[in-house]
What does this fold into?
Amino acid sequence: MAQIKSVGVVGSGQMGSGIAQLAAVNGLEVWLHDSDSTALSKAHQSISSTIQTLLVSKGHLTKEKGAEAIRNLRCTSKLEDFRSVDIVIEAIVESELVKMELFAKLDNIVKGSAILASNTSSISITRIASATRRPSQVIGMHFMNPPPIMRLVEIIRGAATSDDTFNATKLLAERFGKRVICSQDYSGFVVNRILMPMINEAFYALYTGVATKEDIDAGMKLGTNHPMGPLELADHIGLDVCLSIMKVLHTGLGDAKYVPCPLLVHYVDAGRLGRKKGIGVYKYSKM
It folds into this structure.
């Protein structure tokens, strides 16, 4: 099993840029891809600023290591620049069709030994792998948000994922300082199979007038010691993401308990997607 030395990350949003930062700080060569050049530039600036102002200034990295991490990070709008990477980690929109189209493209670009990993939080790895000619080298590598801070990585093997692919991916996550848990390839995996129904139920509680949003969140924070209430957390994740995962759970598991709450659907239809839009369940000042 060859050691991973270079990483390609697709998607420069909060998840993708966080994963790219982790890889760069841990001494890997990183290509960060996004078709949106403005988003890509913003991500590079944000990562560089975080490394310099937070990690170096607070003594988590030496100046030399910080400078090396920034040098390790390269940005591109061309997937062809991934030709020589050892692993690609996809962190794009939570859509099975879009992910399968991307994996089919990557399969024709990257070298034969490269691993294709998806940061999907709910979609079948087996189905994503079916879009490629290398299903044994496709795996789920689900980081939590934000990736540099959250300690967990959830690894999901598809039906054909090889032991070498699994072991290399696990070693990479551990190199990033993460605790790894493993899930079978069922809709929602472990974390979102449990978390999203709780968030959906919180929406039902709000929808049916059980309590105010503030009391629902306070009840879970103070009564069960959660750091964030479920509605606040939904805003942090993105209501569109929550809705997408609930749809995956409902379709994949076929149980009516996974039907998305109409209020969640209504908010997403209205563009109330959470913190990233300035309004979701709560209103936020411009960031």
Summary: The first strand starts at residue 6 and ends at 10.
